[in-house]
Amino acid sequence: MEKKKPKKVFVQGAISPEKIATSIAHHQVKTNIGAHDIFLGQVRADEIDGKMVKAIDYSAYEEMAENKFHEIRESAFEKYDLTCMHIYHSLGEVKAGEICLFVFTSSKHRKMAMDACRYLVEEIKAQVPVFGKEIFEDESHQWKVNS
Asked: Are 135 and 55 in contact (CB under 8 A)?
């Protein structure tokens, strides 16, 4: 069996609503799909120690992270009967209110699409070496702690 090449996951800056809409629109021709599930991770304007987060600056060990995304992607295809899957994650600065993670799963039936999407998001958050530096309105910053 031919080894699949890892797909590019990272995009510079925020993931635009147009990219999300275009991705969804391209699936209308795939008439074997009966369900999609989508997760959109959005940067929150959290208040931490009296300061507001205005953005998160994402960085990663890109090659290592792309390989980990690939492993998670392949494990999802093994676990769930999926027709299609897309994962995009931001690098660089993403402002509060903008999208930083887009996970899109498709299958014949909703349960598979929904279960796979949840699995992917949880595995990404737990395993992928992506780091976020919270930037506050006063331009100070700190490394984000995932919850």
From this structure: yes
pLDDT for 1 beyond 50: no
Nearest CA to 9 out of 63, 79, 76, 81 is that of 63
Contact 106, 36 (CB under 8 A): yes
In whole angstroms, how far apart are CA 122 and each of 76, 103, 116?
Answer: 12, 11, 10
> What are 102's two structure tokens?
């887009």
| Each residue's pLDDT tens digit, 36-71 | 999 999 999 999 999 999 999 999 999 999 999 999
pTM over 0.90: yes
Where does the chain have alpha helices with state H?
17-25, 62-79, 110-127
In the chain, where are the structural domains located?
Answer: 10-143
Q: Is residue 94 packed enough to be buried (19+ CB in 10 Å), middle (13-18) or exposed (0-12)?
A: buried
Superfamily for the 10-143 domain: Molybdopterin biosynthesis MoaE subunit (3.90.1170.40)
> In whole numbers, what is the pLDDT of the chain averaged over residues?
93
Residue identified by tokens 């530096």 is 133
